[in-house]
């Protein structure tokens, strides 16, 4: 009986705290010039710890295609945690939100001659 009540309550709590967003991003670093702008989506959950401060958890997925086409590219799944600090301490307005994250899954696409012109992905750890 408790499980039947607890699960919907937890789902409702997380749904009220979540923000879904789409994003456009740019790779930086080694070999980043080989890829065009990427796109993706994310879910962000924030948990208030005071009227002006929140702890945030974010998970998403990004896709970056090679320049000149959409057949090959990179996909990754980052997981981040952050702290939201409202500057005027009211909980509204301008804020700072440093985040720390880790890419929990990353893949590169490749051409598989056994299947013809199909974009396939294989696991590649992102170090």
Summed up, the helix count is 1
In which range does the helix fraction lie?
A: 10-25%
Count all strands and give the number.
7
How many angstroms does the end-to-end distance come to?
46 Å
Strand content: over 45%
What's the main sheet like? 7 strands, antiparallel
Low-confidence stretches: 117-127
What's the alpha carbon Rg, rounded to whole Å?
A: 19 Å
Order of helices and strands: HEEEEEEE
Q: Averaged pLDDT, please?
A: 78
Label the overall shape. Answer: flat
Structural class: mainly beta
Molecular structure report:
The protein has one helix spanning 2-17, and strands at 18-25, 38-48, 53-65, 73-86, 95-96, 99-111, 119-123. By secondary structure, the chain is mainly beta. It is flat, with a radius of gyration of 19 Å. Strands 1, 2, 3, 4, 5, 6 and 7 form a seven-stranded antiparallel beta sheet that branches. The chain contains one helix and seven strands.
Give the structure's gist in a few sentences.
The chain has 127 residues and is mostly beta strands.
List the SSEs and their pairings.
Layout: H1 2-17, E1 18-25, E2 38-48, E3 53-65, E4 73-86, E5 95-96, E6 99-111, E7 119-123
Antiparallel strand pairs: 1-2, 2-3, 3-4, 4-5, 4-6, 6-7
Label this structure with key terms:
single chain, 127 residues, mainly beta, seven-stranded antiparallel β-sheet, 1 helix, 7 strands, 13% helix, disordered C terminus
